[in-house]
Design goal:
The protein is α/β, with parallel strands linked by helices. Helix content is 50%, strand content 12%. The radius of gyration is 27 Å and the shape is flat.
Length: 465
């Protein structure tokens, strides 16, 4: 849901705190009601009946109740404060969570062998209509909050510490982001914080943003010392280089705060949803393309003989060795001393059928079985041959950070034109740069974007030899 007002004073009702945990559960309850409403309406229209949710068949009731319970599982993701995020970002997160809920529902139907008890048309229409209702609800709340902010309500007061370029950028961004309802009430230097907080005529801030470089230890410490009796939320906005250096977040080990300079971004709910979506999509795709895969296997056997599959050891998540599968596209050959020569343009080892499979990416289809095994993901950095990893890890800075996530069938580098042979160091550096860009910004929404772009741009690639 969108951010709730911090507090409102209503006559005769005291203070209503809409940022309290109770509000989050109220929002969850509202979402659950909308999901049930969508299920009931779709069922009645589809079957021409007039039943309430409690009168629906048991299998339908279980789907509705489990959907509400699953939304509760993502309460920290869906129902946190969205004050500093825009509407589209909120709806994207909602989409990814709802797709995860639908995927879990499908798995539940499959495992319980009750899939035939539920209409597929009802399930699809219910899934789409529920998402639309949840979106409409959030848009209404979003517009309501904007209306309140235009009336001077539902805002947070911010004290900006640091009269420098960082502080100026923060104030400029807030001035152009009125949807946040963040109101700057002061802009002071670190040594002026004490005087500001002690002046009774000054409005006390609800948040204090310290806009100082990390190297200004004295300024940060003096600001924190001046605020040690304040109930305001305090944020540190370091300079750009420090932000880049800090990477993705902070952790605490043995009671000591640590900056995570290199770590796997896949954890918690993100890991669970990504794993679930990968396995479900891989299973569905394998079922759909199995006739095509049988035809390709038969064509390979008739034109090249066995084996049909090409198997190779590559580095996977955290550098672990994994075996990947592809359809064989080359004549059987052997290379000396573990050398692996990349396929090149007009490579004599590649057969006519193999060239077609490579151009159309059909040779990659068996890798969906790798995804089903849990060795690969649908989206991620492409796995390189072990020999190439050993070579390029010495040549390209941060090369091995590619292995902080599972390798993928498609990735950010591939949809940006870096697929196929990497015959120069510059090409490999650019591919690694794009892979790390994906890892640093990894999200389910970005995965969906890459999958869609892979389909839209087509599987045919002129760089695939």
């Amino acid at each position: 849901m969108t951010d709730r007002p911090e507090q409102f004073h209503f006559a005769g009702r005291g203070v209503l705190r809409l940022s309290s945990p109770l509000t989050r559960y109220a929002a969850l309850l509202m979402d659950f009601a909308l999901v049930c409403l969508a299920g009931m309406v779709v069922y009645n229209v589809y079957h021409n009946t007039r039943l309430w949710p409690t009168e629906l068949p048991l299998s339908y009731q279980l789907l509705l109740v489990s959907a509400g319970a699953l939304l509760g599982f993502f309460i920290d993701t869906l129902y946190r404060s969205w004050r500093l995020q825009n509407l589209l970002h909120m709806l994207r997160v909602l989409l990814m969570v709802w797709l995860g809920v639908m995927a879990i529902e499908v798995i539940g139907l499959f495992l319980s062998k009750t899939a035939t008890d539920v209409s597929r048309a009802w399930f699809l229409i219910w899934g789409v209509s529920s998402y639309l209702l949840l979106c409409i609800e959030r848009v209404v709340v979003y517009l309501w909050l904007r209306g309140l902010r235009r009336k001077g309500l539902n805002f947070k007061t911010v004290l900006v510490v640091g009269i420098n370029s960082i502080g100026a950028q923060v104030i400029e961004k807030l001035s152009h982001a009125n949807f946040t309802g963040m109101k700057v009430i002061g802009h002071v230097e670190p040594q002026e914080v004490v005087n500001y907080m002690n002046m009774p005529q000054h409005q006390q801030p609800q948040e204090v943003w310290i806009c100082l470089p990390l190297s200004d230890v004295k300024g940060i410490q003096s600001s924190l010392q001046a605020l040690n009796q304040s109930v305001a939320s305090i944020r540190l906005v370091p300079d750009w280089f420090s932000s880049k250096l800090m990477g993705h977040g902070l952790s605490e080990e043995l009671g000591m705060p640590m900056v995570d300079l290199s770590y796997s971004p896949v954890s918690g709910a993100t890991w669970f949803i990504k794993e679930l979506v990968d396995r479900v999509l891989a299973a569905i795709i394998l079922v759909l393309v199995s006739p095509l895969m049988l035809l390709i296997a038969l064509a390979i056997y008739l034109t090249m003989g066995g084996p049909v599959l090409f198997k190779q050891i590559r580095n996977g998540w955290n550098g672990k060795l994994i075996r990947i599968y592809k359809f064989r596209t080359m004549k059987v050959h052997h290379e000396l001393n573990g050398q692996v020569t990349q396929a090149q343009k007009d490579d004599e080892r590649v057969t006519a059928l193999g060239a077609f499979l490579r151009k159309t990416s059909l040779d990659e289809l068996p890798q969906f079985y790798n995804v089903l095994q849990g060795r690969m993901s649908i989206v991620g950095p492409r796995p390189h041959v072990v020999a190439h990893n050993e070579y390029y890890r010495q040549m390209v800075p941060r090369y091995m950070l590619r292995h902080k996530v599972k390798p993928g069938i498609t990735g950010w580098a591939q949809i940006n034109g870096f697929r196929g042979e990497t015959d120069t160091l510059d090409k490999m550096e650019k591919r690694v740069e794009l892979d790390l860009y994906y890892i640093e910004r990894m999200s389910l929404w970005l995965d969906l974007k890459i999958i869609v772009l892979t389909v839209v741009k087509g599987f045919v690639n002129r760089n695939a030899y």
